[in-house]
Write a structure and sequence with these properties.
The chain is built from 16 helices and 23 strands. The two termini are 31 Å apart. With 550 residues, the chain is of the alpha/beta class.
Length: 550
């Protein structure tokens, strides 16, 4: 059976607020995306994933939706979205949107009505509790810090997995579910090709809402209650009533899903086309991230992830996204950041079993910014934890340092298009500061050079699309090789008798590998040096061969 269309696709993620501003208000918008469609086409993107652009108070940068049917005026109009869908289609590109249905905004009309009238239908769309003692109903901790409960003036408490501005939707309510399905199908009818489904493993709750013990006496982390028993009923229903009808692409953000549960989510008959597997990308707390030992730990996580995901289903492959710091900072020491390291990482992940995602700016090697104060940041999570540190006599400087290294704002600084005013992002005042290195790192400069990271990413996508290799990557098996070599991540992809070998040297020194039969399809460091029956891989050299190790 031929691979589903999305298995051969390359996806480009756009954070619309930071991509391209078309009207000079300092905020990226839909017309700015339309303006750059030719750029994305030349890059080799087949699918554009647009992070939330719905009406929102922007407490959490659009992940708090107040109207699912309307484009927020800061991003444009529904007509602008129609135009974007049309122009993308003309270029053979598809568009998927973020689907945020674990929660909405406290300014959504449903919640506004629910606050005003405890007996209205909409009150049943949320989780409300009225404990007799007047205290919060349990000790669960929100993902953004503090309690999952916020009290209303009438004594009711409402539940929120994330910000208090993001009340959770009560999926136990069949009327609420029908409202959600109606909205999903409305967008699919408009021509959207699918969705990245946000925080979906949180939609089923422990309905006892009982407090849970913790060793440290602090609040119980809500992230421990993902993929709760019974969630499959909701997910199967949504698939049958929406996704299956349109043959669309669905990508689940599914924290808490791994191992055997992966098959339920992204297997042959899974709820979604694929999920993001977060088990191998997390480098939080790594102090020696470029050392051989750190690379070996990373390698083991990658290989283990590929072992079960390739057998059980399909995954979305990524190095960065809107919720994480830049990959060159995450995986490399500062003195290692540059073309070699960035291109080596790109080769490593791009041909694994799964659909590769490129996050805006990744293709030119954008880096973390330098943050001097909490006032420069926008991330609601960072500000919340900074405030908690002040209230609890903690060290706010440590919070600033943490989010300076690992915070979400690093991925949200404006796209660096050129070395002119505001990196070519806007003629106005940018909503978030532009990274100061935009004069050295920008699209225009790299478009003018054939040896740039941007040029290399175009080679990556071209190979991913070129038959017979496209079928090898979409349908082939994966086998790790050269596991004994320190800091070398290598694997073979095989389909219909053809083998493609990928080998990447993450060591800071040269290493020898056995000669690979067949031609070299791609190398980030020029031609390979051969010494008898061995190839010499330079530091951070990555190669792709049509052939297998002899």
């Amino acid at each position: 059976m031929a691979a589903e269309w999305w298995k051969k696709a390359v996806v480009y993620q756009i954070y619309p607020r930071s991509f391209k501003d078309s009207n000079g208000d300092g905020i990226g918008d839909l017309n700015g995306i339309t303006e750059k469609l030719d750029y994305l086409k030349k890059l080799g993107a087949d699918v554009i994933w647009i992070s939330p652009m719905y009406c929102s108070p922007m407490d959490d940068n659009g992940y708090d939706i107040s109207d699912y049917y309307q484009v927020d005026p800061m991003f444009g109009t529904n007509d602008d979205m129609d135009r974007l869908l049309f122009e993308a289609g003309k270029r053979g590109m598809k568009v998927i949107l973020d689907l945020v249905v674990n929660h909405c905004s406290d300014e959504h009309e449903w919640f506004v009505k629910a606050k005003q009238d405890p007996d209205c239908e909409e009150a049943g769309y949320f989780y409300f509790k009225s404990p007799e003692d007047g205290k919060e109903p349990n000790n669960w901790r929100s993902n953004f810090g503090g309690s999952v409960w916020t009290e209303l003036p009438d004594g009711r408490w409402y539940f929120h997995t994330f910000s208090k501005k993001q009340p959770d939707l009560n999926w136990e309510n069949p009327k609420l579910r029908e409202k959600i399905y109606e909205m999903i199908n409305w967008w699919l009818e408009k021509g959207v090709a699918g969705f990245r489904v946000d925080a979906i493993t949180f939609i089923k709750k422990d309905l006892t809402f009982a407090s849970r013990e913790t060793e440290d006496g602090l609040r119980y982390p809500i992230e421990n209650l993902t993929d709760y028993p019974g969630i499959g009923d909701f997910l199967a229903e949504m698939k049958a009533k929406c996704f299956e009808r349109y043959g669309c692409m669905t990508v689940a953000e599914a924290p808490g899903v791994s191992g055997d549960t992966f098959r339920r989510y992204a297997g042959e008959n899974g709820y979604f086309s694929m999920i993001f597997d977060f088990t191998w990308e997390n480098m939080e707390g790594e102090t020696d991230k470029s050392s051989v030992e750190a690379v070996e730990r990373w390698k083991q996580r990658i290989l283990e992830s590929q072992r079960f995901t390739s057998e059980a289903g399909w995954s979305g492959l990524f190095l960065e996204n809107h919720d994480q710091s830049r990959c060159v900072n995450k995986y490399l020491e500062k003195d290692q950041i540059g073309f070699a390291g960035a291109s080596a990482m790109a080769v490593m992940y791009f041909y694994l079993c799964g659909t590769p995602f490129i996050y805006q700016g990744q293709e030119i090697g954008m880096t973390n910014a330098e943050w001097n104060s909490i006032e420069e940041m926008d991330d609601v999570r960072a500000k919340g934890m900074y405030r908690e540190a002040l209230e609890q006599n903690g060290d706010p400087q440590k919070v600033l340092e943490y989010f300076g290294e690992l915070g979400r704002d690093n991925a949200r600084t404006p796209m660096q298009w050129c070395d002119g005013k505001n990196a070519g992002f806007t003629e106005g005042v940018p909503w978030l500061k532009v990274n100061e290195n935009y004069r050295e790192i920008n699209v225009k400069a790299q478009e003018e050079r054939g040896d740039s990271l941007l040029a290399f990413y175009k080679k990556l996508t071209a190979l991913r699309h070129q038959e017979p290799y496209a079928s090898v990557f979409a349908e082939g098996t994966i086998r790790p090789v050269l596991k004994e070599l320190p800091a070398v991540i290598a694997y073979e992809r095989e389909w219909d008798g053809r083998i493609v070998t990928v080998a990447v040297n993450f060591k800071k020194t040269e290493q020898e590998i056995p000669v690979v039969g067949g031609k070299c399809l791609l190398s980030n460091e020029g031609e390979l040096q051969q010494m008898g029956e061995r190839y010499l891989l330079k530091a951070y050299q990555a190669v792709v061969f049509d052939g297998m190790i002899k």
